[in-house]
Write a structure and sequence with these properties.
disordered N terminus, globular, disordered C terminus, 2 domains, 14 strands, six-stranded antiparallel beta sheet, mainly beta, Jelly Rolls, about 250 residues, binds calcium ion
């Protein structure tokens, strides 16, 4: 459950500012705040955490009861609410995320066309980088950056991004590229956006396999372990698993 701005304003003594988000956190990725939105076409300029390139600053959210807009109800991929990136015009929705340099960022999202047809596809691209210099990302399993989905079901997409050395602020953005209906203010539903970051690949003195093909570490030192094992030697790092822990398919060999 989110906290609406109305309830926050009615709570005297509530903190005036939210605590800073922990590193590598994308918030409100499912567009569930503000709560209680019904139907299509809710244009908002104060949606928590999200920003838009739309000239009017408005982001469009859809809730339950949206059938009148499209002829058939579109259920959210997660929760009850989702966004239409083509709100009043083609735009890009984005968040700036505090990141630790040289970590691996894993992103996921759900995308769907506004058309009810599986064959009529809307297209978005994920762009990640510094706030002033994002680049298009190629999702896992694809050879191009175009994320194309029809309107009969949500499509789910995942990708990885290596945070460059020195980059402590990373912009994650989803750009509307085209929509099947050809109307600038119609198309590209977005929901369930999520970002996680792995630890950086550990440094070792001897050559050994410490990271998988994605650069994701296979092991890390478990802080709960004693510094030295019963033989007096440094304790071996405890395994944390493989990249599958991050729900990634295995890299192509
Ligand atoms: Ca949602």
């Amino acid at each position: 459950m989110g906290i609406s701005s109305a309830s926050a304003q009615s709570s005297p003594g509530a903190p005036s500012a939210a605590p800073p988000a922990p590193a590598c956190t994308l918030s409100n990725g499912g567009f569930e705040e503000p709560t209680g939105l019904q139907g299509a076409g809710n244009l908002k300029r104060d949606i928590p955490n999200w920003r838009t390139t739309s000239a009017d600053g408005a982001i469009e959210l859809w809730g339950p009861g949206n059938a009148p807009a499209t002829g058939s109800e579109v259920a959210a991929d997660s929760g009850t609410t989702f966004a239409e990136i083509n709100g009043t015009q083609p735009s890009t929705l984005y968040q700036d995320i505090a990141t630790t340099p040289k970590t691996v960022l894993v992103w996921r999202l759900a995308h769907r066309a506004r058309s009810a047809s599986a064959d009529q596809k809307d297209v978005v691209r994920v762009r990640i980088g510094t706030p002033g210099g994002t680049t298009t990302q190629i999702p896992l399993g694809q050879t191009t950056p175009d994320i194309a989905d029809g309107g009969s079901a949500w499509g789910h997409h995942t990708g990885i991004y290596r945070v460059p050395k020195g980059q402590k602020l990373t912009r994650f953005s989803v750009e509307a590229v085209s929509s099947a209906q050809g109307v600038p203010s119609l198309g590209n539903f977005l929901d369930s956006v999520d970002v996680t970051c792995s630890p950086p690949c550990p440094k070792t003195k001897v050559p050994q396999r410490v990271c998988d093909g994605w650069g994701l570490p296979l092991y890390r030192v478990h802080t709960a372990l004693p510094a030295r094992n019963p033989h007096g030697r440094p304790a071996h790092p405890a395994p944390i698993g493989t990249a599958s822990d991050f729900l990634l398919p295995r890299p192509a060999r």
